[in-house]
Amino acid sequence: MEIRNVCVLGGSGFVGRHAVHLLSACGVEVTVPTRSRERAKELILLPTVDVMDADVHDEATLNHLTRDADAVINLVGVLHDGRGDRSFAEAHVALARKVVAACRKNNVQRLLHMSALNADVSGPSAYLRSKGEAEAIVRDSEAKWTIFRPSVIFGRGDRFLNMFARMLRFVPVVALGCPAARFQPVWVEDVAQAFVRALGEPHSYGQSYDLCGPKVYTLRELVALAGLWSGHPRLIIGLSDTLSYLQAFTLELLPGKLMTRDNVRSMRVDSVCDCEFPFPFGITPAALEAVTPLYLGAGGDPRARYGAYRRQHDTR
Question: Which CATH number applies to 5-154+186-211?
């Protein structure tokens, strides 16, 4: 199947920006609908990319956006339910249903969908259940679909390690909920590459891929590394399950939503891959240690961060 025109929903987001850059480099015409062109200003300059003001949750708008598409990539997702964000039901379930309907109406055969590791209609959290419901909708569609289920995604501008690095600048001690929760972080560039390479790959039709990096870490280890690489190492005190839940309840009342009770429920299941490597499509996943110190380092200066990283790993 020749893919010349792709509509990327969520194209101005964290993973989306990387995927759009890769698609443009391949000469693919890309449509990126967004509620804020300011968020997508780096994409506007790309030669094959059309950034449009649009609400993808509006069915008529979605039908218009997908009318001339050869493929649709749905990367839309929210981490917290409602209260300023769209709800899980809207962003994950309802939108998946609208995307499938738009693809059917416009005869768009190729559909790539972003899910999450451990997505399950019977999952322990509302987030994982909504992701599982969205997967079921995509699987039941008539499209040639491919689903991706990453663990936590890291990279410049992520909302995970960067959040901890910023927080550690201002606190002398960290009371950490769910310290033993396990993750297998995957680099955003590897995730974007997987989406782009899958587009024209017939063997990926009707397949789901769990995406993980090469190493498993506990949350305590990840927070400690964020402190080390950002130049703000801190004492970390792990909280019990009960205290983790109470802490999340308190944090829900604050702006920024550092953690919610639903996040705690999600972390009851380890976000790690039980599949054999290698990564799909011949991609070798980057190690956290090889990438993160270069953008997370203190001072914000890339040369200084690179120098610090080399000193840290100099074995001479």
Answer: 3.40.50.720
